[in-house]
Amino acid sequence: MTERSKNIGLGMAAALVAAFAYSLLICVLIAAMDAVPVKMAAYFVLLALWFVLPTGALFGAYLPRLLAPLSRTRGMRKGFLWGAVAGLGCGILWAFQLSVMFRDITMMSSAVSFGITMGIYSGCCVSVTALKYSNKS
Fold first, then answer.
1. CA–CA dist 64, 75 (Å, integer)
2. pLDDT recorded at residue 34
3. How many H-runs (helices) and E-runs (strands) does the chain carry?
4. 21 phi and psi, to 5 degrees?
């Protein structure tokens, strides 16, 4: 197994764990759902797998190489920016997917809040991961 394929697998696993944690947090905060939050969070992750796994694979493949020459501070900033953009896109697409699935166009108004919160969350996760790959000096 090459180093790149190992990083791709780790990126996908990290994205899956981060997506589940975010979904669980949202389900617990909403708490008006009748279902158990863990099951509902797992269901939401399954709905978003089409975006979560490829994004994690891309981050796993390219973050180590792109962040290696950067200082830790610059690496964290770049990681936060890339994670926030990916999270914003995923949040908006996820809200759109839910509104189409449930045939409720009023859910699109939550696309902005899903996008912003997922962007901040993803940015933080990727910036912490960037610490591992950025230059130690």
1. 10
2. 59
3. 4, 0
4. -65, -40
Task: Judge whether 51 and 98 are in contact, CB under 8 Å.
Answer: no
How far apart, in whole angstroms, are the C-alpha atoms of residue 92 and residue 104?
15
Angle of CA points 106, 23, 80, to nearest 5°: 100
- For the chain, the farthest-separated pair of C-alpha atoms sits apart, in whole angstroms, at 52
Distance CA 107, CA 48 (A): 16
- Determine the pLDDT at residue 107: 64
Please name the residues in contact with 76: beta carbons below 8 A apart, sequence gap of 6 or more: 127, 128, 130, 131, 134
CA dist list (Å): 137 to 108, 129, 134: 45, 16, 9
* Chunked mean pLDDT (size 10), the chain, 137 residues: 85 85 78 67 80 87 87 87 85 77 70 75 82 76
pTM here? 0.78
Which has the closest alpha carbon to 115: 47, 26, 3, 7? 26
d(CA 70, CA 79): 11
Nearest in space to 33 (alpha carbons), one of 98, 96, 87, 88? 98
